[in-house]
Amino acid sequence: MTQGEVLDIARDAIYNIILTSAPLLLISLIVGLIISIFQTVTSIQEQTLTFVPKILGVFAGMLLFGAWMLNNMTDFMTRLWSDFSLYIS
């Protein structure tokens, strides 16, 4: 196994991690931005106000995107294990 192959596997893994986590991170970012704008307009500075909507948004995102995320990671691991004999030599 050459250094190029190791770098290809690492690049694919990092890309897969970014792609899989993107929906939940975007939901958290958008909810946080909306709550921040709401706090600025209403002058409410309660810190727990930001966490509860984010948790609920991420939970809803996991319900919506969970199957896709699981399939994405499963496909990646299946590709890794199917090519395992190539990595040994």
TrEMBL record:
Question: Where is this protein primarily located?
Answer: membrane
Q: Which Pfam families match?
A: Bac_export_3 (PF01313)
Q: Which residues form the signal peptide?
A: none
Protein's UniProt keywords contain Transmembrane = yes
| Membrane topology, record value | Multi-pass membrane protein
* Keywords, sorted A to Z: Bacterial flagellum, Cell membrane, Cell projection, Cilium, Flagellum, Membrane, Transmembrane, Transmembrane helix
- Tell me which domain of life the UniProt entry assigns to the organism this sequence originates from: Bacteria
Give me the Gene Ontology terms describing cellular component. Answer: bacterial-type flagellum basal body; plasma membrane
Membrane-crossing ranges are 13-38, 50-70
Q: Which InterPro entries match?
A: Bac_export_3, FliQ
GO BP, one annotated term: protein secretion
Q: Where in the cell is it found?
A: Cell membrane; Bacterial flagellum basal body
Q: Which NCBIfam families match?
A: fliQ
Q: Which family does it belong to?
A: Belongs to the FliQ/MopD/SpaQ family.
Q: What does this protein do?
A: Role in flagellar biosynthesis.
Protein's UniProt name: Flagellar biosynthetic protein FliQ
